[in-house]
Amino acid sequence: MHLSGRGKVLGVIGHPVGHSLSPAMQNAAIEALGLDAVYVPFDVAPEELGQAIEGIRALGIAGVNVTIPHKEAVIPLLDKVEDDAREIGSVNTVANVGGRLIGSSTDGPGFMRSLAEAGCAPGGYKAVVLGAGGAGRAVTFALAKVGAKVVVLDEMAGKAERLARDVQKAAEPGMVHAEPGIERLAEHLQRANLLVNCTPVGMHPEEEAMPVQPELLRDDLIVFDLVYNPVRTKLLAAAEAAGARTVTGVKMLVYQGALSFRRWTGIDPPIDVMEAAVLEQLRGRT
Fold it and tell me: 44 with 13: CB under 8 angstroms?
């Protein structure tokens, strides 16, 4: 990796941030392209977020990804927030443009690119989204905006209802229905084309957990699990056994990262290189 005094510094801010796969993924792309840049993790405690944002300006850092717990708290600290991120209420990418910090979200577009790669055009679909947190919000907004009808299920009824209200401001009325709890999951899945797990259920080290009973899966479903560690979750394994088409969480991780990379550099990074770096890191952790 070539670095000079004129090189770009990029990074990710979160707390904790040591587990992030973004440094390996983004640095692999930087190296493959021969760029004079480096991507580093910054562990920023919540009470130090304001100082960290000012540090981005002072140090001339070209851009950062933003992860838990700062995706919402960073919004009022920025000079501009693009409409998509403001609607969702979450920023995952900050670009330093001439000293102005501009926030955006690449989560929804990254999700949609992952679906497109799997040959899925969800306009007109009936989708079930599990979880109304940050990822669930990005996914639901993205689906509703292309004409999918979405049922959002979350054990915290208020989160699902708030998400449904927020989407109605940006999409056609009636595109999103909020469902408190998961008692009617089987009923909604019977009418669905697409199931998206936006919860951490099934994530390492609780790999045996499943957000959906295997008998509810069928061969005409598309099942997208945003959990990427392990790559092949128990949900995806059960979906494959039922004959369903599946999409792994690694795909969304890579595509949202690639979109961030383009915002900072103006260059489309090599997707295959980024995905290989993520998979190598995951193999090293198992």
Answer: yes
Of 177, 132, 186, 134, give the one whose Cα is nearest residue 154.
132
Spatial CA neighbour of 132 closest among 107, 147, 151, 113: 151
Query: 169 an active-site residue?
Result: no
pTM of whole model > 0.90?
A: yes
Report pLDDT digits (tens) over 148-162. Answer: 999 999 988 788 999
Q: Are strands 126-130 and 194-197 parallel, antiparallel or unpaired?
A: parallel
Residues 78 and 121 in one domain: no
Q: Are residues 125 and 196 both part of a single domain? A: yes
User: Residue 275 belongs to what domain range?
Assistant: 8-105+251-285
Residue 239 CA to its chain's centroid (Å): 21
User: In this structure, what are the phi and psi dihedrals at residue 152, rounded to the nearest 5 degrees?
Assistant: -105, 125
pLDDT digits (tens, 9 = 90+) for 97-156: 999 999 999 999 999 999 999 999 999 999 999 999 889 999 999 999 999 999 999 988
Catalytic residue (one of 71, 145, 149, 234): 71
